Each structure stands twice: as structure tokens, then as C-alpha cells.
Amino acid sequence: MKKYIIIAGVPRAGKSIISQMISKKFGYQHISMDSIIAGIEKTFPETGIDSDANTQPYDNLVNISAKMAPFIRAMMDSGEYDELDYGVVIDIYQLLPKDFVQHIDSSICDIYYFITSEVTA
């Protein structure tokens, strides 16, 4: 398995549950981007990241994805996890495939998209 795994997709699809299961089974650290995004929204409104923005939902998804993909890449590039034996599993709703391809190194990261909320762990 690669050092980083991203579980992305629609709300209520089971991303967090699967991420936690991977974390527990393989000893990966689990990072919920929902919590990080909420912190950014409240602390740094100048970023324009606002899950409840008064815009079309898809337009807001595009905006947040374009900002979070480079953020995730910076986390990976920080070197914080390089010396550790375990990997990292990240769950996130707001990450579109085009932003993953543009910003994240697929040689160290796999991504899995959950495209329906009709699943159970």
C-alpha cells in the first residue's frame, strides 16, 4: 500500500467509517479533512473556504477542492510522515479528480471515490 490513501466522495457515503477501518487494520493515521476545513472556515475566513456559502453547491465544491488539493499536497510534502513506518488515510468530501491529478503525487498516494451514499461499511 502507498504511504497516503485518500477516501473522497459524496456526503454520507461511508468515507469516515472506511477511513477509520483502514486506519485500525493497517495502523495508518486517520485525518478527517472535515474537521480541518471547519477550522479553516472559522479561523481564516479570508481563504474563501465556506461550506455554507450562498452559492450553487457545485460551484462551492469546485472552490473548496481547488484550495484543499494544494493544502493536502503541502501536508504530504512537509516531511512530517517520511520517517514514520505507518501511512496516512485522509477522508474528504471536497476533492475533485481534476484537482487530485493537478496537485497530488499519485506515486505516493492512492485515491478512492465513493460516488453514492447508498453504501454501508
In words, what does this structure look like?
With 121 residues, the chain is an alpha/beta fold. The chain has a 4-stranded parallel beta sheet. The protein has helices at residues 15-26, 33-43, 57-77, 97-103, and strands at residues 4-9, 29-32, 88-92, 109-114. Helix 3 (57-77) packs parallel to helix 4. It has a single domain (4-114), classed as Rossmann fold. The protein has 4 helices and 4 strands. The two termini are 20 Å apart. Helices cover 42% and strands 17% of the residues. The longest helix has 21 residues, at 57-77. It is globular.
Mean model confidence by pLDDT: 91
Q: What would you call the structural class?
A: alpha/beta
Low-confidence stretches: none
CATH class: Alpha Beta
User: How many domain modules?
Assistant: 1
CATH architecture: 3-Layer(aba) Sandwich
Tally of alpha and pi helices: 4
The CATH topology comes to Rossmann fold
Helical content band = 40-55%
First and last CA, distance: 20 Å
Keywords:
single chain, 42% helix, Rossmann fold, alpha/beta, 4 helices, 4 strands, four-stranded parallel beta sheet, 121 residues
SSE layout and pairing:
Elements (H helix, E strand, L loop, with lengths): L3 E6 L5 H12 L2 E4 H11 L13 H21 L10 E5 L4 H7 L5 E6 L7
Parallel strand pairs: 1-3, 1-4, 2-3
Helix pairs in contact: 3-4
InterPro entries: P-loop_NTPase (IPR027417)
